[in-house]
Specification:
6-stranded parallel beta sheet, 6-stranded mixed beta sheet, homodimer, Diaminopimelate Epimerase, Chain A, domain 1, alpha/beta, 2 domains
């Protein structure tokens, strides 16, 4: 019996079910959680959705998002507890004791340690939402517009609107089916990608205007200082995903964002376009990460920190790709 | 017999075929053109691809893009001339006399006047690439990786990477099939969306840093001056799609970009998020456009032009949506 079938069977036999997603929930976490909740309710289960962190504003359009409880205090006892899109500790809600008889984990992250017996892990799924789609089909529940919108959002966001390399024929086929069940693609786009806070976009402008790059154009970086936050009335959270703009520069292999976190302390974020492996580099900067994304924190003046990081990244690029040229732009030849 | 079947029949009987796309070709135009060329070559046709304008750098990764001839001078005579993704005048190459016996037009733009007898128009297609996919199936030609990459790019770009409201179940199903035939989604993303010229991104930064908006937050605007072009070493072309960032601001209904085109002259671009119809407004600014996009050119100092346009847009919003509030940001309450 497959993990999927075992989980479907277990859930069918429960009456009360608690579902959590991970801390700082994203579109896949929330879409998966809500779709599963709605499908289980169609099977007449009593379902509670509870996360540590609130639903970010851009995902409040999701049907029934307002029903997700938040905070550390989880009340009641349940027949089953389901964690979606993360290994259970990442829900941040419980420390080894759970208010349920059956524990179920549904995730697509390869790093999941499979610590619960009823774990279904599918690293080939672009989004946990794809797995929830399969589970709902296994239940035999008919997908309605609300469920379709949740699952579409899950797949849409985890594939970067079908831009990332995890976009598979399967993701697109399920997304097509969700559109047929009534999901509105522009509704999702408008909420997820067309709801940039005004001050945040002005901050992005100021940050990008100050972008610099190495002579060979393979490293580009931006700096966000305390002064800039003060001037634009923004906070660290507003810099989310800024580094993706830097990475998008033609010729750039590694993008770096330096964010001031103290008088002489900076948080680093690094992103690779895919050819440079950052996992070794992050450790040398006192941080962690994986192939395409790494981060850390470093003390020193901005000039010191920049010098160390940029030369370190430059060396890693030379080691992995060979030396670069001195004319990064075809356009300026 | 359907237009599709008639066109497939006609092409099968030809030996030499010329294919053009429209001026300033985009991903759909080029992907459709190249996919059709490659499919016809599998039927042993001799195919020439010829456009007025060169292939933009971001689309040069398309298989056989280097074979597209460019410029006004078209040599030779052909059994058939096919114009894709536009009505024939928009190819910009011929004025009523064509170097072919049979004229074929394949397009998905509702505005196409259907002036050629062999016209196939499908306004429900999200991209012309979807129609070319159907045509290739009608030919019975097997889709290979190169054709798949062209058609995937066509659909991917015309739906804004599946973000726009024209994204249909059909678009996603065809895209899924193209991935199965070997199209690499990240290759397309990296070329189309991750190849921002360095100076262009710095220009975007400077432009966004200067963004302003109306008191109710429903109109936001940016200005690109000659001085800014000089300072960043950029040109008008580099501002392409900048207005989409302005439109993406939460609460904004209409985004405006003012681009200096003379000492006291400005080109306007307007974009609506979908609720405001801009078609009437554009005419009052001496320009043209449709529901969601409009443009024009206006003489006067920057302050004069801004005042006229912003108050005109504000009035249109009030007329269509009613009065707005004075607190555009939930976040700053």
């Amino acid at each position: 019996m497959s993990d999927l079938a075992r989980i479907a069977e277990s859930l069918k036999q429960c009456r009360t079910i608690l579902i959590s997603a991970h801390k700082s929930p994203d579109g896949d976490a929330l879409g998966s959680q809500l779709a599963l909740m709605l499908a289980l309710e169609k099977l007449n289960k009593t379902v509670t959705a509870h996360n540590l962190d609130p639903v970010p504003e851009i995902y409040r359009f999701l049907p029934h998002a307002g029903r997700i409880k938040t905070g550390l205090l989880v009340q009641g006892r349940y027949d089953a507890y389901v964690v979606v899109d993360a290994d259970p500790p990442r829900s941040g809600l419980f420390d080894k004791t759970y208010p349920a008889d059956i524990l179920i984990n549904i995730d697509h992250h390869l790093t999941n340690p499979r610590e619960w017996p009823l774990t279904w892990l599918d690293p080939d799924a672009s989004a946990c939402g794809e797995m929830i789609y399969e589970l709902i089909n296994e239940f035999g529940v008919t997908i309605d517009r609300d469920i379709a919108l949740c699952l579409y959002t899950a797949i849409f966001t985890d594939t970067g609107s079908f831009r990332y390399s995890n976009t598979s024929p399967e993701s697109m086929k399920i997304a097509a089916a969700m559109l047929e069940f009534g999901a509105d693609p522009w509704l999702v786009t408008e909420n997820v990608y067309e709801s940039f806070a005004y001050q945040r976009l002005k901050l992005l402008g100021a940050v990008l205007a100050g972008m610099e790059r190495s002579e060979d154009g393979r490293v580009a970086w931006v700096v966000v200082t305390d002064e800039l936050f003060r001037r634009t009335g923004t906070t660290a959270e507003d810099t989310d995903s800024f580094i993706n703009f830097v990475r998008s520069v033609k010729g750039v292999e590694v993008a770096v964002l330096f964010r001031q976190t103290g008088e002489a302390q900076y948080k680093l974020s690094l992103r690779s376009k895919g050819r440079i492996d950052l996992s070794g580099l992050a450790q040398s900067f006192g941080g962690g990460g994986h192939k395409n994304a790494a981060g850390g924190t470093m003390g020193g003046t901005l000039e010191e920190v920049k010098r160390k990081v940029i030369s370190g990244v430059g060396e890693a690029i030379t080691a992995q790709l060979g030396a670069g040229g001195a004319d990064p732009d075809g356009r300026r030849r």
